[in-house]
Amino acid sequence: FLRLIVLLILACGGMPRAASALQATPTASPTSVTCHVTPRSTAEILTLAEANPSEREPILELPTGDDADPATTAAITTVLREMAACLTTGDMLRFYALHSDGWLRRSLGIVDGMAILTTSIPPLDDGHHARYVGPWHVQMLTDGRVLAAVLLVVGDDPRPDPNRTRVLIFTHSDGHWLVDETIA
Predict the structure, then answer these.
(1) Under 8 Å between Cβ of 178 and 158
(2) Which residue, of 47, 61, 138, 180, is most buried by count of CB atoms within 10 Å of its CB?
């Protein structure tokens, strides 16, 4: 049970930030994708977790941008599917490879020992899967990042908890989209 709580805290981006979002009809993200991203090393994760976090100011209102083009939306959807596959298999070093250094500093540096604890989470039990419903409201922001609303679902709950809805802000780095911020 503790493992699931830690998994959810990390998947949701650590400490929540206040924001408002518009409702939309999300689409389901299949979980048939596998987790093949090159993993980060445990040493790299521990180093980032110990670094002085470069905290951004809490986001009080969601940033707005223009609707993302279909190719960008598809790329973000692919990242979300791989993140879900990595969460399902408990492969946190690969999950962290889908996040920016800044996200890791802010999220793993919050609780002492969180980084080492989360690098060895076993797969989800009983055939449960993690999946992200969405993305929706995918927008290109003026700073080049992409905003996307998602809902994390773990297991087979027929009524996902809307409190798990998050806005993820992705940054493009070395040809890949990475989660850079998480907004509750």
Answers:
(1) no
(2) 138
Answer yes or no: are the C-beta atoms of 126 and 73 closer than 8 Å.
no
User: Helix-strand-coil percent breakdown of the chain, rounded to 5?
Assistant: 35, 20, 45
Neighbours of 25 (CB within 10 A): 6
Residue 83: what are its φ and ψ, rounded to 5°? -60, -45
Which portions of the chain are predicted below pLDDT 50? Answer: 1-12, 14-31
Encoding tokens for residue 136? 């929706």
Residues 6+ apart with CB under 8 A from 29: 77, 80, 81, 84, 131, 132, 133, 134
Per DSSP, the three-state class of 44 is helix
Q: Give Cα 33 to chain centroid, integer Å.
A: 16
Segment 61-109, tens digit of pLDDT: 788 899 999 999 999 999 999 999 998 888 889 999 999 999 988 887 7
Residue 74 structure tokens: 């598809």
Per-residue b or e along 64-86, where b marks 16 or more CB atoms closer than 10 Å to that residue's CB: ebeebeeebbebbbebbbbbbbb
For the beta sheet containing 146-154, the strands, ordered from the edge strand earlier in sequence to the opposite edge, are 66-67, 130-140, 146-154, 165-173, 176-183
